[in-house]
Amino acid sequence: MIFLRVLLIVTLSAGIARADGEKPKWEVGVGFGFLRFEHYPASNQYMDLAFPFPTFVYRGDVLRADDREGAKIFLLTSSDWTLQLGGLLFPPLSASANSARIGMDDLPVVVAPGPQLQRALGKNWWAKIGAYQALGATFTSLRTTGALAEASVTYQNEYELGTSFFGFREATTTFSGGVMGASQELHELYYGVPVAQATAPRPQYRAEAGLLATQLSFFQSVKRGDLAVYLGARVSDYGVSANRASPLFIANQNVSVLFGLTYSLFKSEARELPIPTSP
Fold first, then answer.
1. What's 106's DSSP letter?
2. Of 63, 132, 216, 274, most Cβ neighbours within 10 A?
3. CA distance linking residue 272 with residue 155, whole number of Å
4. Which of 163, 158, 173 is nearest to 18 (CA)?
């Protein structure tokens, strides 16, 4: 589910990062993606999505939406620190589609925007902490559904392949590891069982605040001209979860995968500017 922010990056991007100033300020294109992800954290059932989508890249000095930065708004920057606005996305789920949740309320789509503080740790390495307000949305309502916090360390390397691989020469490799926690309200959304929806195999359960998961992820992109190919995987481990006793806690690990293709159709003549930094 948290892996969907990678899908958001792919949906918004059609180019592989090069040095600042070498890329168009904006690009528009088309893409196709395949995504396999868990119904909800610690579920043992998965959803497969395959679909075409439009792509848009914007490399401004305040707003950025590309495969290097994702979709972010930069608030304050320096040579080592960045304060920005980012977010997480959790997909909706029909309770009838999941054997553990039959007879319960459907899960809403959860959008969680919030500030992120990022610090460079050296060449290609950075650490990030983020805090997010979760908002649950349906066709008829929008309500707060708790809060999340995360801490992660990321390694990213942008390079040229030594030899051409089917014409692909430019590549970006990203590894990331982190931990995430959530408030009682958000845990209750996924793990709580109200008395009215309890059954013999699914007894009543009230969720607790605490850790949600530890995660390891890998993301690879390669480019040939205007064509870019993306491949990603994420392993989420719930051994640290505060609600392992919930009857809705089924699997100790989830593995999600992503594959995508994008093609840039139109580009601006204007080039991007380096992200400004404060003294």
1. P
2. 132
3. 23
4. 158
Q: Find residue 259's DSSP bridge partners.
A: 34, 231
Q: What is the pTM of this model?
A: 0.83
Cβ neighbours for 237, distance < 8 A, ≥ 6 positions apart: 213, 214, 215, 252, 253
CB neighbour list of residue 217: distance below 8 Å, 6 or more residues apart: 3, 6, 174, 175, 176, 177, 232, 233, 234, 235
Among 64, 70, 36, 31, residue whose Cα is nearest residue 230? 31
* 177 or 168, greater pLDDT: 177
Structure tokens at 267: 């580009």
50-67: per-residue pLDDT in tens? 999 888 887 766 666 555
Q: What is the rounded CA–CA span in Å between residue 10 and residue 71?
A: 10
The secondary structure of residue 17, as a DSSP letter, is -
